[in-house]
Amino acid sequence: MNHSFLKIAIALMLAFCGAATYAQSAYPNRPVKVIIPFPPGGTLDAVGRQLAQKLSDQLGQPFVVENRPGGNGTIGGAVVAQAQADGYTLLFNASTFTTAPMTMKSVPYGVVKDFTPIALVAKAPLSIAINKNLPITDVKSLLAHAKANPGKMTFAVGSIGSAGHLSTELLKRAGGIDYTVVPYKGTAPAFQDLIGGQIDGFIDPILGSLQYHKNGLLRVVATTGDKRTPNLPDVPTVSETLPGYEFYSWYGLWGPAKLSADITQKLNVETNKALESDLRDKLMQQGLVLTPGTPEDFAKFQNADMVRSQKIITDGNIRLE
Question: For the chain, how many structural domains are there in total?
Fold first, then answer.
């Protein structure tokens, strides 16, 4: 009797293990939800949707983007933190994801403890866009104008603690200048006021300002990467005037904590594959620097970036009220 019971128990255990192994190897076998915690229409949304479509094509299941804006990105982040760690709810977000908890009183998750880094997708150099009616054509004239008008220049910030915000604060210190930072609820109204002359400058990912610059509605005077970007080859980097100045926004893919190594690895491999496809040229034309690597590479990058960001936030006393 005991022997028969033991055989049945072993058979059930083997069947269960086999089903679990099959479920992982067959991943995904139903649609995957990709949470983007900001509204449609921005750079983050554009990159995330292109990646989701490519993953759908490669893996044969829909990767469905769901925008869950609000709370400086924390509402959408909380959805993923609380989801089952089965690979069917993922987060696509920008570097604001790691800096929001540094600027807010309370966030419903921990970036390190509640998420699994899957892949660093791309770094996005920023552009310094200036109202076209100002006598500013490069970084040198920007610094001269700011020094001649201490505290009078105004720079927009699309969201508190964003890469654009940190870059704006860093430029103050690197250039030894002062200006007034004006928070906006999103990049679209900031660009409208920059074009209209209600604001003097705005630092944001290149994709946002590119068309306005080409149409002559505003003037991009510099970019923040370590080299000039292919889509703005005539625009210098900030570091050509202020050596060592370099700043990026960046985009990544995360799952909930305790996502299995098998699924994490599969998603990482497929994301890197997508970055080697025709998507590569599309993203590079948008000014992005592609960053394929392992989940471990991403975790290391994220932690180093958080240390750097915390210093800028502390030094600039950046808080979201």
Answer: 2
The answer to whether 73 touches 321, Cβ cutoff 8 Å, is no
Q: Which of 17-21, 153-157, 227-231, 260-264 has the lowest mean pLDDT?
A: 17-21
The C-alpha atoms of residue 20 and residue 158 are separated, in whole angstroms, by 44
One domain for residues 56 and 198: no
pLDDT digits (tens, 9 = 90+) for 111-140: 999 999 999 999 999 999 999 999 999 999
**Phi/psi class of residue 203: alpha, beta or left (left: φ > 0; alpha: ψ in -120 to 50)?**
beta
> 116 φ, ψ to 5°?
-110, 115
Positive or negative: CA dihedral 152, 157, 160, 163: negative
Point out the domain boundary residue: 240, 267, 287: 240
Q: What is the pLDDT of residues 28-85, one digit of tens each?
A: 999 999 999 988 877 889 899 999 999 999 999 999 999 999 888 999 999 999 999 9
Per-residue burial over 109-142, b if 16 or more Cβ lie within 10 Å, else e, is: bebeebbbbbbbbbbbbbbbbbbeebebebbbeb
Measured torsion, CA atoms of residues 84, 258, 289, 129, in degrees rounded to the nearest 10: 60
Q: How many beta carbons lie within 10 A of that of residue 255, not counting itself?
A: 24
107-111: which pairs have CB atoms within 8 A and are 24 or more residues apart? 107/74, 107/77, 108/74, 108/77, 108/78, 108/81, 109/74, 109/77, 109/78, 109/81, 111/302, 111/306
Q: Going by DSSP bridges, is the β-strand pair 89-94/32-36 parallel, antiparallel, or unpaired? A: parallel
For residues 91 and 88, give the distance between their C-alpha atoms in angstroms, rounded to a whole number. Answer: 10
117 with 139, same domain: the answer is no
